[in-house]
Structure formats: C-alpha cells, structure tokens
Design a protein that fits this description.
Aspartate Aminotransferase, domain 2; Aspartate Aminotransferase, domain 1; 4-stranded mixed sheet; 3-stranded antiparallel sheet; about 10% strand
Length: about 425
Amino acid sequence: MQLIYEKSVPGRRAVRAPRLTVPAREPINKKLLRARPAALPEMPELEIVRHFTNLSRRNFSIDTNFYPLGSCTMKYNPKACETAAAHPGFTQIHPLWPQLRGGGQLTQGALCLLYETERMLSESFDVVSIPSTPAGTVDVERLKAVIDGDTAGMMMTNPNTLGLFEPEIEHIAELIHAAGGLMYYDGANLNAILGRCKPADMGFDVCHLNLHKTFATPHGGGGPGAGPVGVTARLRPFLPISRVIKKDDGTYALDYEHPKSIGYIAPFYGNFGVLVRTYAYCLMVGRDGLRDISNHAVLNANYLLAKLREFFPANYAGNCMHEFVLSARPAGPNGVRALDLAKGLIDRGIHPPTVYFPLIVPEAMMIEPTETETRETLDRFVEVMRELAAIARDNPAELKNAPVTTPVGRLDEVAAARNMNLACLPPDE
C-alpha cells in the first residue's frame, strides 16, 4: 500500500489517502491459450440458478436430515495451522520422493517434520491402555495392576464411549489419587449428565468441556471447536494467564498477578464466536433447561436402544446414557456388514451412524439421537432399520449396491486405498 499526502489547506488537516498498488501480472504462456473460443452452451439464467440450487440440496446436513452420529466429531482447526499446511513447500512434494537428487534436498523438510512430530507426540510419559470388562466399563483389577509411583494421571470420559456410566468412578479416582496422580475428564459426553452430576464430584481434577458439542454448536454443525478447561481449587494457582476478573466497581479487567501460573497463552480468549453461542444458550435455557437437555438426551437414546435391540443386539446389557453401540453381526451370515447398512441409510435420507468404532465391538454402529429429535423422527429411524434388517436377511445384494439415489454410487474403497492416483509436480531444477 502506498500513502499519498495531499497539500495542506489552511484551516484543514492534511489528509492521507491510501492507494493500493497492484503488481503487474505475468503474461500467460501462449501454449496455454486457446486457438479458438471455447464451445460453451448458452443457458438461461433461471436454469443455471435451478441447477446449482438443486446441487446444493444434495448436501447432507443436520438442517435437513436425521444425523445420529455417535461420538464427538468436532475439532479445532487454527488458521495459522491451515496456512502452514498450505505452504507450497509441503503441498507440492510427497515424502516418498527421493531424499536427495543431484545434491539437492528434495524432502528433507517433510521428513524433518514427520520425525520431530513423532518425537513430540511420544514425550512425557508412556500411555497405558486399560481394557474394559465384559460389561463395557473399566476393569478396575487391571487398573490396579499398572498403578505405581510413576502414575501421573488417568484420562476418562463418563459416560464412556459405549454410552455407559462408570459405576466405580469414585473408587477409580481414589486409586489414582493415592498414587499421587490426577484425574482428567474428557467432556465429550457431557450432554448426558447436565444438571445431574459434576466431574469434580466424581473425583476429577481437570476437565475440558466440548462447548462445540454440548452448548449450541452440536456435532455435525461443521463449525470450529472450543474447549475451556476447568480445574479443582488446588490446581487453580497454576492456570495460565490472562484471566478475566470483575473489579469492585463492576468493570472487568485482565489479571496477570499469579506467580505460580504456567504463563501467558496468546489465544486465552479461546474461540470467542463459539463462546458467544454458549453464553447465549446457557442464558436462554437456564439451570432447569440444562437438566432437561440431559433428560431428553438419555431418554431418546434409551428409547432407540429398546426398539433396535430387536434386530441389532447391543453388546452390553442394561440401559445407556446419551448414546449406545449396536452390532451388525446378525446381518453377517448373508455377507452384509455395518458399512452396507450405513449406505442403505443414505438412500433413505438418514445420515449413517459412526461405524466400526469403538473397535472393541465387532461391526459396531454407534448411535446418538441427541436431545432435539422428535419421537416421530426416532420412530421413522426404527422402521428404516427394521427394513434394512429384513433386506439384509432376504435380499443382501440390494444393500451391497447401495447407495443408488446419490450422484456418486458405491465406491470401491479397498481399491482406492491400494491404487491411489497420486500426482505431483517435479520441483524446479
């Protein structure tokens, strides 16, 4: 940008008028120019608008269809990371290129990135996975076997990924605390316990809350994430700065006087746009409303679980919390898998649930109806699943060909993974 200074006029201040300087464009290579005009069809404007409007209606979203996608899907994508990922030095190479050619370093940057990322992700302590019991909850005896003086902490979500509440959560917390460790709560499934119980009362010391899933930006919305972290009183002195405080005169300020703080974090505001939604949501529904949210989330999930158990068994007995996991194994004898059922749902205007997760359930289908769906929608989903179960039994080939109502039909995912069509431009020598 250039600044142009106008001549001063008596009685008036000098004005600075900005002027943008547009760099000269490089001439287009003549080899890329057409020898004759392109033979483009002439279309009425209305037909063009209708065409693209109809294409947009093919998009599947929570605004138009049932979206029973289990587990948390929203993740935060910082713009700085997006900028780094778009760097030509990364986008125009492939790590499997020769490391060196003619003395040049073709992929050293990419290999360095992969190596150092691996080293960073493998620092701290070792991660030990604790298996589940046949009932789908933490195996406390196996947990006891790995706890020792080096135990730093345990990370859990409650209810767990299977949609089950951990009945021994207080005992688990006591074991970890006795070893000098901390309990960390993943708030991905918080909408199941809103207004019912607090992570701190379960024995957790640290808790991150997935605001983008529970508070007004639910999963499937396509927006960015936000995860403020709460701690118990003994950890509060170590929280980062800046911290927002309310002064005696009713005004607000940023406070930095915390000598034990881990230090200043630049994006301490978090994702402000999501926080605005959360603030408005909490004011709108109130304390009783938050409790009702958990009531309906758990009720809807258990209603579906009771209905669907008839033809797709759950691996674990009893009730669930906000989500549950079924198995498509009954359809297996005829060659139908969970993926085939998911494709069949697409043909019937329903987004597939999460499939093949968690891994401990064969042919898993993780279903979360959320608290906002009506009984009519849930009943229609049940009837569609009943129909798919019958098709899997009587005409399995039909599901193997699904979907048939979409612009793109069934893809050969195995062939696509094994025979990827990779194209990259050679670097300038």
